[in-house]
Structures are given as structure tokens and as C-alpha cells.
User: Fold this.
Amino acid sequence: FSSTVVCLPRLPRVAVCGGTHGNELSGVYLVRELLKAEKKVMEKEEEEPLSVLMVLSNPRAMQQCRRYVDTDLNRCFTHANGPIPDDAPYEIIRSRELNATLGPKGNPEAVDLVCDLHNTTANMGLCFILRVTCRFQRQMPDVPMRYIHFDVSNKESYSLDSVGKHGFAMEIGPQPHGVVRSNIYTAMKVGVQHMLDWVRIFNSGTIFEGGCVDVFTMIKHIDYPRDSETRNITAAIHPQVQDRDFCLLHPEDPLFQTFSGETLRYKGNEPLYPFFINECAYYEKGIALSLARKRRVMIPAIRVQTEQQQQANKQEFASEEEE
Ligand SMILES: *[C@@H]1O[C@H](CO)[C@@H](O)[C@H](O)[C@H]1NC(C)=O
Ligand SMILES: *[C@@H]1O[C@H](CO)[C@@H](O)[C@H](O)[C@H]1NC(C)=O
Ligand SMILES: CC(=O)N[C@H]1CO[C@H](CO)[C@@H](O)[C@@H]1O
Ligand SMILES: [Zn+2]
Assistant:
């Protein structure tokens, strides 16, 4: 498989975004730290061939240490048209601003890669949530690193990372509400550093060997058992499942424990991998956990396009636009 090398466009402009959810503090503190480091570099006037744009996505929610003020910012990036009213939700207004800074979405001027930093209260380690499959060469030292794929090919993507030409979310946990834990913060910092190193090495023309990578594809969400009248939850995640993200769940395995002490079992007909188990922010979305199928995917060797290939691409893009 490594005989064919796939050539991809250069990635000269990368954006690292934190605070898209204002209470996910690792990303907030990391972007602030990178902004400080950036200022030092600029004072020394060092030439940096890669442009890295640092963005604090939802300042108002960060100030209040809340996920969002009016509505989930990370669901606002669908193709919206027309003027917005003055009393529009804050996040709608902010999403337009971010679309202008990082995008516009679907436009050749958009940044090449958006890395959006999140964290989860679930015990998931470091995860890359992708719309396409790729992989970073190096493994992280202490944290398990995984790839999750949400198939959105038939739906319009709505997340911040969809504004760039390419994008992904880095999700890391467990870390509770409004808390920063140094192990999680450090793992995220190392993850971002790896990603930026990878882009620099890629842009410089190095060939990355192909190979296999395990990808978790989201199949479905499962809600908590609820009272049919009040809609209140009647059970919590079973202790045998709590914190066991990415451990195979078999049909008839315990899944929930009701508040009266009864065990409820997984009724699916195939074993699947649970993740986002008991994510705090997903109670309001009606998600107790998500289930994924694991696939092994072959990744071809990749290399950056030559100058000529890039020129040819630009022309192709321009003629598509005219159509
Ligand atoms: C982003 O901006 C472009 C150009 O102004 C517009 O066409 C598009 O609908 C905007 N998308 C969002 C999500 O705001
Ligand atoms: C359902 O939940 C609401 C809000 O948390 C609470 O006020 C109410 O008492 C609950 N109802 C029952 C029957 O437990
Ligand atoms: C997925 C998600 O939104 N995760 C959580 C990250 O951590 C913060 C607190 O630091 C939670 O509030 C989020 O819900
Ligand atoms: Zn988040």
C-alpha cells in the first residue's frame, strides 16, 4: 500500500481554538498560554513559516465559566444566511464573527486546519474527533490516543472545526466542570505541540508512511431511562460501565442501575464500544453514552503537493467557483 503516495495541499494557516465551551478549562488556559508565547516570539521577530492563529472562541461564556450563554456555540456553524436580529442569541452573533475570522466556511480564504480544544468529564483519554480519517505519526507517551469518526456526509456539519478547510476537535478527559487538572492540561499541550510539529514536517515535504489506524465510528446515542411523565432520569450509568470508555459492551451486559437498585442491561444485538460515558454536558442533550464500532482503516502514504500541483489546483478551484 505504501507504493502510492497521495499528495495533499500545504497547510500554511492553522487555527487553535479554546473556550468554545466556556467551562472546558484546559483549552482556555492552553490558548492563553500559547498567546503569551506568541507575543514573546513576535518580540524576538523570529520568522515562523507556519501561521498559527490562537482563538478564544466564547469569551462571554468563559467569563461566566459556563458551557455557553444562550445556546451551544459548537452547533451554530451551519450555513446561515441573511442578517441577524439585534436580540439574536450571543453565540449566533459570535459564530458569525468566527466565521469571518477563520472562514468563511467553504471558501478558499478559510484557514487550512482548525484544531478545536475540548475536554470531557468521561474517561476517554485523548481523542481526535474527525470528519475525515487521518492520523498523526507519533504516539503520546502516557495518554491513550484514539480517533473517533462521526459520519456527517449526509448532514451539514455544525461545529466550529467545520469552518476551516480541514478541522478536528481534540477531546480529552476526564476533567470535571470548571476545573483544570495539570495532567489533562499537559496532555492537551503535548497533543497540540505534536499536531503543529506534524503540520510543519508535512509542509516541509517529508513523506509520511501509510499504515493502519483503528477508528471508532459513532453508531448511536443511548439516553438515560426516564420517567414517561416527568421525563426525569430514573437510573444512572451502571458502576461496571462508569469510566470504562472504549471497553467493549456486549449484549446483556449491565448498563444502568436504577435509583431503586435494579440493574438494566444493554439490549443491542452486537457488541459495541461505549464512549462519552456520563458526559456532564450531555444530560441536556439526552445522551447517557454513545456507542461506536471499531474499524481498522488503511491510510495511504501522504506528502505535500509540489508548487505546480498547487497552482493547478487553484485554477481548478477558480473555474469551479465560476460555474
Ligand atoms: C460564513 O460566511 C459566508 C460568507 O459571508 C456565508 O456564506 C456563510 O453562510 C457563513 N456561514 C456561517 C456558518 O456563518
Ligand atoms: C423531576 O425533576 C424536576 C427538576 O429537576 C424536579 O423539580 C421534580 O421534583 C422531579 N420530579 C419527580 C417526580 O421526581
Ligand atoms: C464534552 C464536554 O463538553 N466536556 C466537558 C469538559 O469539561 C468541562 C469542565 O471543565 C465540562 O463542563 C464539559 O461538559
Ligand atoms: Zn466541548
Summary: The radius of gyration is 21 Å.
